[in-house]
Design brief:
Length: about 200
């Protein structure tokens, strides 16, 4: 299966339109207007392995100046595989269920009733997808739009800088060098320059 040529946002928009009409509406639920994006959530973006714990988030209309639910899906997903794309779509379904009642019920009864109706499985805080829902998503979205156009982003891809050398220079001549903060702290406040002996060494 090929990667979609759509942008990530347009992919989510089209997938939502499909699900609004053929997944939620037949079950008696209306998905409101939503704005969608790939972004880190406001919490739970990193565990010890650098993977996201919060896979999606829906913001209620009261938090948006235009009164529109905002939905974000974590960039920690990898859409380059069928399973990865299904995971993204499954998370989108979960967040759309929140949008149905404007996040009022949390993961309570109203959320549960809608979630189970559209094919999500328990537990409600971290729903899975039933085989029927997976088949629906593959047939109605993946087969039409292709794989989700996004590869995994993690928060552990950069090495933490453990040391940073500090520049020390003479107040008189052009002599300078870099050393650790520990070495700087060991120096006298007015150490004589090692080159000219006329000036003093200080942190640049």
């Amino acid at each position: 299966m090929k990667k979609s040529k759509l942008s990530r946002e347009n992919y989510l928009i089209q997938a939502t339109d499909i699900m609004r009409k053929s997944l939620f509406k037949p079950k008696g639920y209306k998905v409101p207007k939503v704005e969608l994006s790939i972004s880190w959530a406001t919490r739970g973006n990193r565990n010890k392995k650098g993977d996201a714990k919060t896979l999606g988030q829906c913001f209620p209309t009261q938090m948006h100046a235009g009164g529109i639910n905002q939905i974000v899906i974590t960039p920690n997903y990898d859409g380059s595989t069928i399973q990865g794309s299904l995971d993204i779509l499954g998370t989108l379904v979960h967040e759309l269920v929140h949008a149905v009642d404007d996040c009022v019920s949390g993961h309570g009864k109203a959320f549960k009733d809608c979630a189970l109706a559209v094919g999500l499985t328990m537990p409600m805080r971290s729903t899975g997808e039933s085989e029927e829902l997976k088949e629906y998503l593959r047939k109605n979205i993946l087969d039409k739009l292709g794989l989700f156009p996004h590869k995994k982003v993690t928060l552990n891809g950069t090495k933490k800088q453990t040391t940073r050398n500090i520049k020390v220079e003479c107040t008189c001549c052009e002599f300078s060098f870099r050393t650790s903060r520990k070495n700087v702290e060991m120096m006298d406040e007015l150490s004589h320059c090692l080159a000219c002996d006329d000036g003093y060494l200080e942190v640049a």
